[in-house]
Structures are given as structure tokens and as C-alpha cells.
């Protein structure tokens, strides 16, 4: 399996410059983030990806879109791999709005307000990561899956901090929680 932290969002761009929450809900990718997403196509094209699982946030959907298009894969929207609510960017968009913006994707598994209402305790993020590890480990061809997610979730899932637009192939020990 490959895990990928979404590319740079407008929130990331502004927060990095000011160290203040810019108050952007569910931000899109920045211009640099769109460039990063395009560059990922060349880097990931030969990785034998057959399934893409993506968080419902716009920045993750936009990160996955170019590669999904080139590979002819329809991403699977999975709220388990969402970010922990801690900043304005972690307030998502209603499922009905996402369905209008991304008509080829299935958002039927999301409640209208699918993100957490208040800061999610770290232990709950770790519980989601464990639940996802169990679910993904049971899927056939899990090693041919790309998961597009977020910093806090990936920290809980992989055990390391990842920068915007970076990816890592996980070996079976990490995938099955034996690392």
C-alpha cells in the first residue's frame, strides 16, 4: 500500500507564512499544490496502483484526481481517513455539495456533516487508524492501493510525520500493525 499526504492547500500556504489559522473551511489546493498533484502522476504512475482511497476533504480529492484520471480509477471516498478537527480547514463540505462538485464519486456513505464537530481527541484518531488498518488489511490486493489522507491521520496510521505531497510505500508489517 502507498500512503500519500495531500498536496499543499491554501490553508497550508497561508498558515506556513503566518503561523495563524486563516479561517478557511475545506480549502482547495494552492497553485503549488496543483503542481505537486500533477508531478505525483509521473512519480506514482509505475507503482501498480489499482485502487485509490481518498478522504472526503477537497484537498485530498484534488490531490487524487490527476492520478485517478490517468490510471482510469474512480477513487473510493472513505471518511475513516479524514483529518482530525483542530483548525478551520478541518471543517468539511456537506456531502451533498461534494456530490455536486464530484459527480463521478460516491458520497452516499457520508452523513451530510461527516466531519467531527469539535476537536477530536488523539486516541480517537488512533482508533480510526486501527479500524482502517483492519479494514484495509482484509481487502484483496491491499498492496495495490493508494490512500490519500492527512497529517494527523497518517501520523497515527504510519507513525511518522509526512509533508504535503509526500508518499510512502508501506510494507506488510506496517499494514498489519506488526511493525
Automatic annotation (TrEMBL):
Gene Ontology cellular component list: cytoplasm
SUPFAM superfamilies associated with the record: Phosphoglycerate mutase-like
A Pfam family per the record: His_Phos_1
Superkingdom, natural source: Bacteria
MF term (GO), any: phosphatase activity
Protein name: Histidine phosphatase family protein
Organism of derivation: Acetobacter estunensis
Lineage of the species this protein comes from: Bacteria, Pseudomonadati, Pseudomonadota, Alphaproteobacteria, Acetobacterales
Amino acid at each position: 500500500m502507498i500512503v500519500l499526504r495531500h498536496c499543499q492547500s491554501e490553508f497550508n500556504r497561508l498558515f506556513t507564512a503566518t503561523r495563524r489559522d486563516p479561517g478557511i473551511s475545506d480549502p482547495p489546493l494552492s497553485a503549488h499544490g496543483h503542481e505537486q498533484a500533477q508531478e505525483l502522476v509521473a512519480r506514482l504512475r509505475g507503482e501498480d496502483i489499482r485502487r485509490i482511497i481518498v478522504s472526503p476533504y477537497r484537498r485530498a480529492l484534488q490531490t487524487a484526481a490527476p492520478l485517478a484520471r490517468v490510471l482510469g480509477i474512480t477513487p473510493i471516498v472513505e471518511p475513516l481517513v479524514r483529518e482530525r478537527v483542530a483548525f478551520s480547514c478541518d471543517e468539511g463540505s456537506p456531502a451533498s455539495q461534494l456530490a455536486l462538485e464530484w459527480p463521478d464519486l460516491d458520497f452516499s456513505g457520508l452523513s451530510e456533516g461527516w466531519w467531527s464537530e469539535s476537536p477530536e481527541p488523539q486516541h480517537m484518531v488512533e482508533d480510526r487508524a486501527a479500524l482502517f488498518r483492519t479494514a484495509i488489511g482484509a481487502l484483496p490486493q491491499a498492496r495495490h492501493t493508494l490512500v490519500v489522507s492527512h497529517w494527523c491521520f497518517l501520523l497515527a496510521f504510519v507513525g511518522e510525520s509526512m509533508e504535503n505531497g509526500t508518499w510512502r510505500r508501506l510494507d506488510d508489517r506496517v499494514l498489519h500493525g506488526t511493525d
